[in-house]
Amino acid sequence: MKLQSYDELKHSKYRLSLMLFLFLNVAVSFFCLLPFTGSPGTELSIPVISVALFSATALITSLIRPKLKLPLLNPVALLLGAL
């Protein structure tokens, strides 16, 4: 295996794990915002909305710019964990 193909494979796996992490954050935060039948009501909390917006924005950005090779998973996980 060539070094260049190994780096491309590593980047594609890293990008896929980042996109999966962001997609799951968007799905879970939107799931928390949906009202359920039989529940007293849902509150629109600022952290849930900010996690949904940040994750959706980062996911769209990673889909638009696939050649961007930045190590984003750790800082994004830290930021979303802080929220």
Secondary-structure map with pairings?
Elements: H1 3-33, H2 46-64, H3 73-82
Helix pairs in contact: 1-2
Briefly summarize what is shown:
By secondary structure, this protein is mostly helical. The protein has helices spanning 3-33, 46-64, 73-82. The chain has one domain.
Can you give a write-up of this model?
This protein is an all-alpha fold. It is elongated. It is built from three helices and no strands. Helix 1 runs antiparallel to helix 2. The relative contact order is 0.15.
The biggest beta sheet is recorded as:
none
Count all strands and give the number.
0
Number of domains: 1
Please, what is the average pLDDT? 80
How big a fraction of the residues is strand? under 5%
User: Helix-strand pattern, N to C?
Assistant: HHH
State the distance separating the first and last CA atoms: 41 Å
Number of helices: 3
Helix/strand class: mainly alpha
Contiguous low-pLDDT stretches (5 residues minimum) are none
The outline comes out as: elongated
- Rg on CA atoms, Å: 16 Å
| Fraction of residues in H or I helices | over 70%
